[in-house]
Amino acid sequence: MDNDSSFPPSSPDDELRAKAMLRGLQQFDLDEEDFAILSGEAPESQEGEESFGLPVLAIVGRPNVGKSTLVNRIIGRREAVVQDTPGVTRDRVSYPAEWAGRNFTVVDTGGWEIDVKGLDKLVADQAEVAVDLADAVLLVLDASVGITASDERIVSMLRAKAKPVILAANKVDSAMQEADAASLWSLGMGEPFAVSALHGRGTGDLLDAVMKVLPSQSAVASALPQGGPRRVALLGRPNVGKSSLLNALAGCERVVVNELAGTTRDPVDELVELDNRLWWFVDTAGIRRKMHKTTGADYYASIRTQAALEKAEVALVLFDGSVPLTEQDVRVVQQVVDAGRALVIVTNKWDCVDEERQAALKAEIERELVQISWAPRINVSAKTTWHTNRIARALDTSLKGWDTRIPTGRLNAFLGQLVAAHPHPLRGGKQPRILFATQVSSRPPRFVLFTTGFLDPAYRRFIERRLREEFGFEGTPIQLSMRVRERKRK
């Protein structure tokens, strides 16, 4: 069954406009990847997900060597939190990345240290788990400091894991410091690549080396399932009623339910029939405040919950309507958006919500989830099964948006009219223009905009909002990326 939802073909006028814009784009300097995207041959333009998981690269090293700065350099945006203080990063954080036409996942980790206790020990353990769940490892060292006892212990740990390792000698900001990097040969882990994550120096050569050891098919990451029932992840903080809802939908006591928060630890799969169709539901462990604050089984349950989300197509995020919205609730929603999955927000325990609480809850959601107004929202009671029959319709709505593809002609006609009516503000006497646009993939919808300059974040949000108004995309995040190009020199 083909689940892709596409609009009808563009009109002849739209096609003519798009061809004219494409001819105009030929006057700008384009690279091979640009031509692949424009011809529909780029890897990201394939329908649905690839038949295998994206390869995973773990970034490890002791505290304050510049791991998060290097991650920002690799992914091309300032997303990982960076500070001069050691130990800012604590959780494992995954980001989509691309280099030389290849897509992969980069995992930022906390600093790895020896003989530490408490929170620092949990952070180090988490970094080691990241290595276990990676196809290759990028070990970051501070070339200006040299080899420390912690570096040597990390190398011993990596040797035991038997994963491909690339050395990044960071903080080499000039040719005069190249000798500092050369001293790292003594670790016996191969060539140390001298880089400056802060300034971008040498990162291209480093990523070329990474591509040589990173497999084309991941041995650790699961691909999105192809065909069959749609896969739904039940997410939320502990004790919001995920297991109770799965039992209500399944019509039996499929999952252990207890008033004690955190009863569920392993993801539980259940084939459920809703509206005469089968769906795979996955009950997951509650996502707690921060992964570094969990220990033992709870910690590994959090890791498995993330894996369940990545294998799902749509997430049902549950809130407990009887209590105020929390930071954890918002974080779970953001986790789904970051994973690029379709989203439905479910407020559970509605049988415990009075009129005063309803008004307060509405205000909380409008305030805390103002950027996620596109997600369908339903109120249910898993305990009494009230309104659980609305879940299938909400899932269909979100998956339709997630599957949507816009014809190139219609997309460019829409953007042409939008830019004419609302041009980008002047910046430094220049006005960035959109030269051409194409949707390179669905699930989630991803658009590439060829521009003459960088588009302000506020203008990108404006484009996204208008895309939703024009084409729907209800229940799905939208990914917009830009390729800034300069006019050819005559």
Structural class: alpha/beta
- CATH topology term of the largest domain: Rossmann fold
Biggest beta sheet attributes: 6 strands, mixed
In the predicted model, the low-confidence regions spanning at least 5 consecutive residues are: 43-51, 79-91, 254-267, 289-301
User: What's the end-to-end separation, in Å?
Assistant: 51 Å
Note down, in words, how this protein is organized.
This protein has 14 helices and 17 strands. It is α/β, with parallel strands linked by helices. It has three domains: 5-49 and 405-484, GMP Synthetase, Chain A, domain 3, CATH 3.30.300; 56-213, 3-Layer(aba) Sandwich (Rossmann fold), CATH 3.40.50.300; 230-401, Rossmann fold, CATH 3.40.50. The strands form four sheets. It has a six-stranded mixed β-sheet, sandwiched between helices. β11, α10 and β12 (342-348) form a beta-alpha-beta unit. It starts with a strand and ends in a 6-residue tail after the last strand. 39% of the residues are buried.
Keyphrases for this structure?
single chain, GMP Synthetase, Chain A, domain 3, Rossmann fold, alpha/beta, 6-stranded mixed β-sheet, 14 helices, 490 residues
Could you provide a short overview of the structure?
The chain is α/β, with parallel strands linked by helices. Helix content is 34%, strand content 20%. It has 14 helices and 17 strands.
SSE map:
Blueprint: E1 5-6, H1 12-25, H2 32-39, E2 56-60, H3 67-75, E3 93-99, E4 102-108, H4 118-132, E5 136-142, H5 149-161, E6 165-170, H6 178-182, E7 192-194, H7 203-213, E8 230-235, H8 242-250, E9 268-274, E10 277-283, H9 296-311, E11 314-320, H10 327-339, E12 342-348, H11 355-368, E13 377-379, H12 391-403, E14 404-405, H13 408-421, E15 434-441, E16 446-451, H14 457-471, E17 479-484
Parallel strand pairs: 1-14, 2-4, 2-5, 5-6, 6-7, 8-10, 8-11, 11-12, 12-13, 16-17
Antiparallel strand pairs: 3-4, 9-10, 15-16
Helix pairs in contact: 1-13
